[in-house]
Amino acid sequence: MNNIRFATRACRLASRALPRAQYTTVARASSHLGAKVLRSQSGILSLQFNKSVLPTTSFSQKLYTTQTFTAAQLTPGEYHKASDLTLESILDVLETIGDEHDIDGYDVEYSQGVLTLKLGSKGTYVLNKQPPNQQIWLSSPKSGPKRYDYDADHIKWFYARDNHTIDELLNEELTEALGFDVKLIE
Prior knowledge:
Elements: H1 3-14, H2 20-32, E1 35-39, E2 45-49, H3 76-100, E3 106-111, E4 114-119, E5 124-130, E6 135-140, E7 144-151, E8 156-158, H4 166-178
Antiparallel strand pairs: 1-2, 3-4, 4-5, 5-6, 6-7, 7-8
């Protein structure tokens, strides 16, 4: 099995809790690829790959936060309130960035629960509400599609596969793409 296929398979395995025997196998095999396997207290695995192992366009696991999140069961009203507040907060910051910086190809639009950020040659980000699933979906030109659930206790939208929050990912990617520090949600 080539390195890329193994890395993809290992990432899929890392998204679930594994028994100790499988964890040891993944840890041993991953070390040959230059990957570091970390096991949380809840038993969920996280993989950190050496950047030389995977091409920059492939998924590379990264640890973001040490908090554990739980998807809340919201009423439709609560979901719309939380998702609208988040998208409108992100929109406010993105509009301010557009007003304060001259960025080639920069455009931000928000209509009917869909926020679109165009960065010219650096791609387009789309965030949209998904009321049936009570999620916010993100399409990123750098990291691809993600589905975020809401944790009402922490007041955060999080990605269940690797426990990162929507603001962590967007802050990191937009800071890199724009060349200055971006903080969408504090």
